[in-house]
């Protein structure tokens, strides 16, 4: 199927893998595809996304918050049960060694090799299949970043949907992407 991917969509998939690795994810999910698309889409789609505030920086910020926030809070809750206040530990470390020291140390711990390819999650595979269907439905010979984002939208993954709907409704974005595809045809 990847032989049918256009330049922007191929780059989006490669960047999705890098985003997943940077976030220490075990699999490439649709949310990583969204991050890849936000970096590599066609100029028209990037303009559309930027117009609703969906930039690579905003997507990365949300992904980072989802990746680290839940883990930190669950660790804090576990340690609190034995009398350790992780929030207080963080404050003291940052006060003593400088702002961000605690978070930098936590993000570096347990780092794994950035080499090798990650597999796609089932929802990401589904989004890729749906992207192909979108291209076929629009009588396009290649799968572009627009089709890829439409595939993510149709897949309905909760995390990817939350990334998108924090900026724009799925229906409005879908409609605008289809308009972009129609203009290009």
UniProtKB/TrEMBL annotation:
It comes from the Bacteria. GO terms for biological process: proteolysis. InterPro entries: Clp_N_dom_sf, Clp_R_N. PROSITE patterns: CLP_R. GO terms for molecular function: peptidase activity. Keywords: Hydrolase, Protease, Repeat. Residues 2-183 form the Clp R domain. This is Clp protease. It comes from Mycolicibacterium murale.
């Amino acid at each position: 199927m990847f032989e049918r991917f256009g330049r922007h969509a191929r780059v989006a998939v490669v960047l999705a893998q890098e985003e997943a690795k940077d976030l220490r994810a075990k699999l490439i999910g649709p949310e990583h595809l969204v991050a890849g698309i936000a970096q590599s889409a066609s100029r028209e789609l990037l303009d559309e996304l930027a117009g609703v505030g969906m930039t690579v920086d905003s997507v990365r910020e949300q992904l980072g918050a989802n990746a680290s926030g839940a883990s930190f809070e669950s660790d804090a809750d576990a340690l609190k049960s034995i009398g350790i206040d992780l929030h207080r530990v963080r404050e003291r470390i940052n006060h003593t060694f400088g702002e961000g020291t605690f978070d930098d140390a936590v993000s570096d711990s347990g780092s794994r090799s950035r080499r090798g390819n990650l597999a796609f999650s089932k929802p990401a595979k589904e989004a890729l299949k749906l992207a192909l269907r979108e291209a076929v439905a629009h009588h396009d010979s290649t799968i572009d970043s627009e089709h890829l984002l439409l595939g993510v939208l149709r897949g309905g993954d909760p995390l990817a949907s939350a990334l998108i709907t924090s900026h724009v409704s799925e229906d409005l974005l879908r409609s605008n992407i289809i308009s972009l595809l129609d203009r290009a045809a």
